[in-house]
Amino acid sequence: MYIIKNNYEDKKMRLFDTRHISNTVSFLMIVSFALVSCSKAKVMKEISFAEGFTKEYTSRTPEKEIARHPKDSVIAMVIIDDIICSFNNFRYNNTTPAIKLASLSSPQISKGFFSYGIENGQMALPVFSFSEGKILVYDPMLKKIAVLDAKAASNTEGYEPVFMDTEIMSQRVSPFGERVIFINNFAFEGKEPLVLISDKNWSTKIRTEPFNYMNVMSGSLFSNNVGTRIGCARREIPEMVIFDKKAKPIIKMTFPHDPWEFEKIEYQGITEYIMARSFNEIFYCGCGNDRIFSLVYDDDGDQVLLVFDWEGNILDGFRTEGQIRRVSFSSDEKSIYAWERIDEEDILNEYPLYIAK
User: Fold this and answer.
1) Rounded distance, CA 42 to CA 250, Å?
2) H-helix or E-strand containing 174?
3) The CATH number of domain 43-352 is 2.60.40.10
4) Where are the domains of the chain?
């Protein structure tokens, strides 16, 4: 199904002359140990998926319908710790709260957070992400980040999310313990890390330039609940990378699609890139604590939902009834909630997972 290979970074060690054989032997032993240690530390597993690898995955019938909304009234709906989180579309109705939370047991009773606007406590162009049981709301226009705990926000009277100013400019920002992680736009140049970790003030030292590739660097960003693994799936390049807790890459999965094509434009001393052509790609990825999901396209342009472990092994895969918009795991990670478009409605369905123990 796929090929796995290991890449080792070459290490060159210089041996110095010595008159004492015993010292030479000791030195060589130390060098040998250092070489082994360095090799082990630098190894990154690469997994390449072959053309047509998704053909074996068939359609699956949902186990339960959770919610149903008119087309485009809700940007996304996910389940976090048995809390239904809906992200309302301000273009459809900008007078409703940006986020509504309700429990699975009482979905008709909801609490709202954030209103649309530019005043204090409001969001103008919010981008939503979720990880570690938290919802992060990031507004690149107002340069603000707000984080709320889904369960606490749903169950606690008077709960107020935490707002902070930030200098981060990115297509994707996600919770990571007391910090946030974000896609580094300048990784587009191929010389800088793909994922960066902020300080505890949700900011960090970043390059400040008139153009920062924000319109060409996009994808999904996520981490497990215990903060030991980070994942990033890029849309412009068909790959998903797994990182350790310090954002060092340890696994790279490459999917059989062509990368996007970009056109370079220079205007008044500023170089910009615009998308010239896009191809089928990794559309959306995320995780629970032990598992990752990845929504990919097959050779015919149809969606296939795959479930991996953090080592890159495929555990399950299937096709859904509609066009998937967002995905989330159940709290026990035994089923998946898919927010999908069927005909002229957006529906949140629960699908069972069949994973061998």
Assistant:
1) 8
2) strand 173-176
3) no
4) 1-42, 43-352
pTM across the whole model: 0.81
Q: What Cα–Cα distance (Å) separates residue 293 from each residue in 248, 284, 321, 338?
A: 21, 8, 17, 11
Tokens read off for 6: 């290991």
CA distance 172 to 183: 6
How do beta strands 303-309 and 314-318 pair? antiparallel
Annotate 66-107 with three-state secondary structure: EEEEECCCEEEEEEECCEEEEEECCCCCCCCCCEEEEECCCC
Q: What is the pLDDT along the chain (357 residues), one digit of tens a residue?
A: 323 333 333 333 222 333 343 444 444 444 444 444 444 456 889 999 988 898 999 999 999 998 888 887 888 888 888 898 988 877 666 677 888 898 888 777 788 888 888 887 788 888 888 888 889 999 888 888 999 999 899 888 889 888 888 888 888 899 998 899 999 988 888 889 999 999 888 888 777 676 678 778 888 899 988 889 999 988 778 889 999 999 999 999 998 877 778 888 887 777 777 776 655 555 678 888 899 998 888 877 788 999 999 999 999 999 998 888 888 998 889 999 999 998 888 899 999 999 876
